[in-house]
Design goal:
The structure is a single chain. The protein has 175 residues and is α+β, with helices and mostly antiparallel strands. The chain has one domain: Roll (Thiol Ester Dehydrase, Chain A), CATH 3.10.129.10. The chain is built from 5 helices and 5 strands. A 5-stranded antiparallel sheet has the order 1-3-4-5-2. It starts with 14 loop residues before the first strand and ends in a 21-residue tail after the last helix.
């Protein structure tokens, strides 16, 4: 299974559909809010949300939706990244509610070689997140510094740092 891409593997216009989706639970939303100290009642107080908001129910905190999508994109986009350079834009365009399932996909907008180091490049991508009914809920663009093949080869290849299993009395090794 592929985990990220080298610079050479990205093509402008390519679309990566991230799989699987994630159904957002009330627990997920509340835990994220509590971990990040976002105690807004829109996210945590069902009574408040039902009677005092236009949605009539709790809305999943937007940074959780963004974080889910960013995480979903790692195997396809930034699993080999040297650095995430910039989040250029982040828009929440529709609400997500408890029980919604989020899916994501990323489009490669552009790419260019580094001007300071010849073993890497920058990839400019846009990720959209959408619910089970196709409603787009979040859109963000980012720039990611990714290695070229020669960078990976110089540092151990596809899975640098991966140990080799050592035969012993419990496992004789591969034959």
């Amino acid at each position: 299974m592929q985990f990220g891409r080298s610079y050479e593997e990205f093509e402008v216009g390519a679309v990566y559909q991230h799989w699987p989706g994630k159904t957002v639970t009330e627990y997920d939303d509340h835990l994220f809010c509590l971990l990040t100290m976002n105690h807004h009642p829109l996210h945590l107080d069902t009574h408040y949300a039902a009677g005092s908001t236009q949605f009539g129910q709790n809305v999943v905190v937007g940074n959780y939706v963004y974080s889910l999508l960013l995480g979903m994109s790692v195997p396809d986009v930034s699993g080999k990244a040297i650095a995430n350079l910039e989040i250029e834009s982040l828009r929440h365009v529709a609400p997500t509610f408890h029980g919604d399932t989020i899916y994501g996909e990323t489009t490669v907008l552009d790419k260019w070689e580094s001007t300071s180091k010849d073993d890497r490049g920058v990839v400019h991508v846009e990720t959209i997140g959408y619910k089970q009914d196709g409603t787009v809920v979040c859109i963000f663009r980012r720039k990611v510094m990714v290695p070229k093949e020669n960078y990976l080869e110089a540092r151990g290849g596809e899975q640098p740092g991966r140990p080799v299993p050592v035969p012993d009395r419990n496992w004789p090794g591969r034959d």
